[in-house]
Specification:
The chain has about 290 residues and is α+β, with helices and mostly antiparallel strands. The protein has twelve helices and seven strands.
Length: about 290
């Protein structure tokens, strides 16, 4: 600690600013990576690698300077190269997800406001009915990150989003009721889609089943919003950014879907205005 203080006192003001800027950039980089990896297996791996590198570098500098062990310093440089190679291999899913987020165009821009608002209402209607009848369901709504690798595991549908179709697909006994449904814009893209399961340590409760684990697992590795209806209790849950929100009400579900699907546009107000503009005068007077 004394050596660090002596070094800081010896350097001039400009060099102190440079050191401060470097430390700030390193801190921002580490924070960004940890925040990106939060809730995934890569988070613990990254923290472990940072700990090994920092502690190893400090111990190495102390040992090398005090005892002149240059061979250990040479071996440590080789160890750093090995750590880099292992890190690239271990973080392959996270690296791929980051690159997809950078290059992926938004999926919902091709749909009109009215179509998206109608899809949101159809999803909410279906979820409310399935919650009342305790019909298990998991509905995935992608945002910027594409889910093509998961959609390929399911059955392609490409049907218009309607509450009746959603409820029919998840009705127990139908061939497509198991696993997840993927909705993009105003289309149901696929059903019976297999999703990655989150680790049990990442789940807020041990009583939650495979649907909730799949929802948390997918939302941890993408920016998708996942709606889950419990088959046992009828409780509606919402998974976002690796977190699971339980006991979601219809109003909360509408607010989250409105924000995510229509890019914070108050779709209900605009939809109401469109309907008022299209209503005949007699209907307006009767109301």
């Amino acid at each position: 600690m004394n050596a660090i203080l002596d070094y800081i006192l010896r350097i001039d003001f400009n060099e102190r600013l440079i050191v401060l800027a470097e430390l700030l950039l390193i801190g921002v980089f580490v924070y960004t990576v940890v925040n990106f990896l939060e809730g995934t297996r890569g988070e613990r791996l990254f923290r472990g690698m940072i700990f090994i590198l920092v502690v190893g570098s400090l111990l190495l500098n102390l040992v090398v300077k005090k005892f002149g062990m240059d061979r250990i310093a040479y071996l440590y440089n080789g160890f750093l190269i090995a750590i880099l190679i292992i890190g690239v291999t271990a973080f392959q899913p996270e690296i791929r997800r980051a690159l997809i987020r950078i290059g992926q165009a938004r999926l919902f821009r091709s749909s009109s406001l009215l179509q998206l608002s109608r899809s949101v209402e159809q999803i909410i209607t279906a979820v409310s009915h399935m919650a009342a009848t305790r019909t298990g369901a998991i509905i995935v709504i992608p945002q910027q990150v594409g889910l093509g690798e998961f959609i390929e595991t399911g059955v392609r549908i490409d049907g218009r989003v309607t509450a009746e179709l959603i409820e029919t697909i998840f009705y127990e006994g139908t061939p497509l009721h198991d696993m997840a449904m993927v909705v993009q814009g105003d289309r149901i893209v696929a059903a019976r889609v297999q999703l990655p399961l989150a680790e049990s340590e990442a789940m807020p409760g041990r009583q939650l089943g495979s649907r909730h684990r799949a929802a948390v697992g997918l939302s941890s590795s993408s920016d998708a919003i996942v709606i889950v209806v419990s088959e046992e209790t009828g409780i509606v849950s919402l998974a976002m950014n690796g977190s699971l929100i339980r006991n979601v009400s219809e109003a909360q579900l509408r607010r989250h879907l409105t924000t995510a699907v229509v890019e914070t546009t108050p779709i209900l107000e605009k939809l109401g205005k469109l309907q008022e503009d299209n209503e005949p005068d007699s209907v307006v007077k009767d109301s």
